[in-house]
């Protein structure tokens, strides 16, 4: 046997998009410590690069194999199951596996630059004889005093904390250490974002009959996880879904399994975290929380807490679906219809769908919960791929609120201008104010006026970078959390953030004829405040909530009744519980309906249903007013009657007729460039190549200007492809893209199962 044969090899994916796996050899000194899922440093071209080991081949055909340089960390950081998931994602989402890795492993773990936080701890070094102590007291009384305090400690204490508590200074402490009387030691401390909070332990509630049936269904899946179907839990808001998740997680833990709970980022509120931390408060560290506001250090610590097996439940937003738990028993995707589960940058994955695939790989149970399931999931239940479990009633037996549709066309005829508050909605608010009950007014559009128009020449003030009108804001808050600087009366682009001063005269024709057109939440707020001068009105949207604390403050004030009327965008549509809200007004239900998007109807239906869920959660039942110019549109009518089944059926019929999801899969290709001609030409060339490459079964659209033609200075063209065999389509598209040399200033992206069609 020659030396060659004893060499071991590893196959790795380097952290660069090279679309290829590479082989390296393993020096003997490292051989025992490397395995599939290990992170390693390897020579790459003329530099070093970080890489992930994806296989241990027996031998390698590659030429000029070089040895790996180092192993990062002690243990493999990716399980075989997660690697398999990564491969599936690459194939399905039409992207390189290196790109998938970027989402799968947090940057702080990939780079391995941030480590544990070390802090200085103090403890007595040895026993000290009385005589020695007396000597110290005479020479250095302060030191003696501090030593006395330290010698009373039972456990090591953080130096900083000791000094803060005792008012001694650092010098005195250091002097004691130099004398060898106290020991100072660096020790790792866990950065826990919820470390200073107390969670009150709660126990299982007694389930009602519907809940029992739902939980039974999940329990049965625990017994045969390998062939269990995903469970779609369809239950109105307040029907007790979360209580079912909590009990199912307990069951998973009892079986020595672990669990992931995905919630949309926006509903990852302190309330939600508290509910989970509280239920599992018996064992500290059991629940890890992952979301986008963690510091790098906190993310590092939470990740290791999960990876090491200390945390057994992970609750988090989208990317928590990749949490490195072992023995996964259950994945819950709450509000599975939420579009925030879709990542809008590569890899453009949908966390719900990834959850379903991960569950299959890990042989675990997956529960998708929603009050308004997505058409995709509902369809999967209808054809038997998922199991549908329904909760029909609120736990508190409350009736669903009464929904009244107000025809804005009639209002317009009466008033001769666009209505903000119809007479009926106005009266309803007045009525609530009298009874000291609260109102929420919802409008999915920020700002004061949607546009600034010239009544002489008709020109609107558009964003120079995007093909949209600038929105007029009376009070535009700018800057980060720390230094908001208020600008009064400016125009702003909601897509790229460009702002401009309000011109006195029309820059196009020079006439003093500028008028404000359309309205947003800011205008609603000021109108309502004018009509009800005695009421306390507050607004909650991305403009008014630039400070982190502002959000909590406003909610707190609303909860305690200091605010009568809350105006806001989707920020207030979701997940909030306010028992004293008995009226919800939807100022304009048509905003989403007229977007050029096949999901427009579905979104409107979901939004109305959710917003309506905010009304009447307490003792008094609620009322919802829906203002619309299209009162007979199906999404509004079905939502009004709380008729899910009816809505799904008619929407599915429409989708089937038009070959849209869930009956096909869609890939949306976007070609963009600052140079309009080059973007267009590249898109047209690509379309021709795709025509040659794709079999007839795939429906290939033309290269067309995107509905949002210009965005952030880039011209955009779309190609829409539809078909059933998505993995095959994905591969063909990938190959076509790889073959075509695009000009350098042209960017091409492929989005599989897209949610943004603009
Ligand atoms: P959902 O997640 O469907 O909105 P929740 O689980 O949050 O519903 O339940 C709504 C409210 O009802 C919560 O305050 C919850 O504590 C309470 N609740 C849930 N199940 C029960 C039950 N079986 N008995 C009593 N209260 C319950
Ligand atoms: Zn813009």
Descriptive notes:
It is a single chain. The protein is of the alpha/beta class and 758 residues long. The protein has six domains: 3-111, PriA, 3(prime) DNA-binding domain (GIY-YIG endonuclease), CATH 3.40.1440; 117-189; 209-397, 3-Layer(aba) Sandwich (Rossmann fold), CATH 3.40.50.300; 402-447 and 519-654, P-loop containing nucleotide triphosphate hydrolases (Rossmann fold); 452-518, no CATH class; 665-752, Alpha-Beta Plaits (2-Layer Sandwich), CATH 3.30.70. Helices cover 33% and strands 23% of the residues. The protein has a seven-stranded parallel β-sheet with strand order 11-12-10-13-14-9-15, sandwiched between helices. α13 links the parallel β13 and β14. α2 packs across α3 (97-104), α2 (80-92) packs across α13 (351-362) and α9 packs parallel to α10 (241-254). The longest helix is centred in the last third of the chain and has 18 residues, at 676-693. The radius of gyration is 30 Å and the shape is globular. The protein starts with a helix and ends in a 6-residue tail after the last strand. Mean pLDDT is 87; it is low at 1-5 and 477-487. The protein binds adenosine-5'-diphosphate and zinc ion.
Which structural class should the secondary elements be placed in? alpha/beta
Straight-line N-to-C gap = 63 Å
- Tell me the number of structural domains: 6
Q: State the shape.
A: globular
Low-confidence region ranges:
1-5, 477-487
Helix run count: 23
Ligands: adenosine-5'-diphosphate, zinc ion
Question: Any idea what the radius of gyration is?
Answer: 30 Å
pLDDT averaged over residues: 87
The CATH topology of the largest domain comes to Rossmann fold
Give helix % range.
25-40%
- Second CATH tier, the architecture of the largest domain: 3-Layer(aba) Sandwich
Q: What is the CATH class of the largest domain? A: Alpha Beta
What is the number of E strands? Answer: 31
